Amino acid sequence: MPGPPPALHVRDVHKSYRARHVLRGVSLALEPGTLAGVVGENGAGKTTLLRILSGQLAADRGEAVVRGTLGHCPQEAVLNDFLTVAQHLRYFRVAYGLRDTHRAEELLEELRFGEYRHTRAGELSGGTRQKLNLTLALMHDPGVLLLDEPYQGFDWETYLRFWQVAGRLRERGRCVLVVSHLAWDTGRLDVLYRLREGAVEPWRPAPVPDPSYGDPSVAVGASR
Ligand SMILES: Nc1ncnc2c1ncn2[C@@H]1O[C@H](COP(=O)(O)OP(=O)(O)OP(=O)(O)O)[C@@H](O)[C@H]1O
């Protein structure tokens, strides 16, 4: 990884849509090799925050500094229904200026959807579209990863593989920010922030083990 280690610093970010003050002073910091979560109820401003961090939306005030290359997995997969999985990989290889699709091929194997290589995106299931969405965000091996509800539509096995992938990224010094409306499985995170009333605060929900869901360490609704 050339250059200084990746990091993400957000200081006093504000954002309003007309009279709706969605973000009212968000500050957080991710040092190299951090796997962090942001939870918040529907409409709390999570996507707004990620769009500001990814440079798609301007903050009204405050500062968001990304050090390193950025990977952004949006909540809605941005795919061309007429292109196959392999065509998407080739298209993004060129867009990212990569020499090959080696990392993308690894992710295809890790997330187990290589069999759909020649299937058009419009014919993929929701979960497989999400695997492709995630692969496109990760295939240039970015230093800072912004993942908006990255495991929506995943079956349990894929969900567990997602966390393996995220854990390996952390081990390699990447900053990974996972945004979700549910504080689920928070034991896998180094730090969890809660976005509420326009600001974030570090949060430790009380563990509520639920034996009906396999082996998650914590299963708590963010609104509690
Ligand atoms: N372009 C926009 N114009 C006006 N209001 C907007 C716009 N985008 C979002 N909002 C409003 O800002 C608030 C925060 O929206 P945002 O999508 O950031 O929330 P979220 O936490 O990601 O929600 P969810 O969990 O439902 O995805 C909501 O009240 C939403 O209606």
From TrEMBL:
Residues 8-222 form the ABC transporter domain. GO terms for molecular function: ATP binding; ATP hydrolysis activity. The keyword Mitochondrion does not apply. SUPFAM superfamilies: P-loop containing nucleoside triphosphate hydrolases. InterPro entries: AAA+_ATPase, ABC_transporter-like_ATP-bd, P-loop_NTPase. SMART domains: AAA. Pfam families: ABC_tran. The keyword Nucleotide-binding applies. Residues 205-224 are annotated as: Disordered. Signal peptide: none annotated. Keywords: ATP-binding, Nucleotide-binding. It comes from the Bacteria. Transmembrane segments: none annotated. This is ABC transporter. It comes from Streptomyces albireticuli. The lineage of its organism: Bacteria, Bacillati, Actinomycetota, Actinomycetes, Kitasatosporales.
